[in-house]
Specification:
249 residues, alpha/beta, TIM Barrel, 8-stranded parallel barrel, 12 helices, 42% helix, binds 1,3-dihydroxyacetonephosphate
Length: 249
Amino acid sequence: MARKKIIAGNWKMNMTPSEAVELVNTLKPLVANDEVDVVFCVPAIDIIPVMEAAKGSNIQVGAENMYFEEKGAYTGEISPAMLTDVGVKYVILGHSERREYFGETNEDINKKMHKAFEHGITPIMCCGETLTQREQGVTMDFIRQQVKVGFLGITAEQAKTAVIAYEPIWAIGTGKTATTEQAQEVCADIRKCIAEIYDEATAEAIRIQYGGSVNAGTAADLFAQADIDGGLVGGAALKPDFGKIVNYK
Ligand code: 13P
């Protein structure tokens, strides 16, 4: 069965609640496309107003992060139940910015993966290499480690519903999109890695996105690749261009 594309925006630390509502109202008619899953991953404080503003549209709302404990003395964190209580269906886990600036490890991300599945939230687990790693030829060694540890103890049935976002760090926010060949090559290798951990059926089912300077001009070629099932979009998700990316065909 063909995998449904999933095109998600990662708003990062942008948009106050009132700006968020305005942006959703602008984008709502532009992203109307039921052939793909459209997800807006927004800052925690924007989740409720964005949900309200997106009501009746095809926009699904996701979080950008989540903690791996149920509740308690973890000042500043957001629990899985807080997200599901307001209807959140997706959460980005292990974005390279969280790994780099907030010290998240593969092990932390694995704990979050377990929690997400336990609460019925679909994780969008990020992985990707630095420029140095690419130049040293260790891209796949590094990504395989991220994927293997990230999915440790996750069942095949759960993994089939997960989303992996391949985001080369050197392509994030730099305007340097990976070439379609580079992106397809790594996404295909990630799928192989999933086949090794689980089986062919799981590898065929899991959705793998590309992220890193995706824009209206590059989306169509990227999303036409056999192993690229959509995108995780930063900067361009905050602009009307996101409508063109969602309607890339
Ligand atoms: P840009 O699209 O701004 O490069 O960001 C990509 C990203 O990090 C999405 O998670």
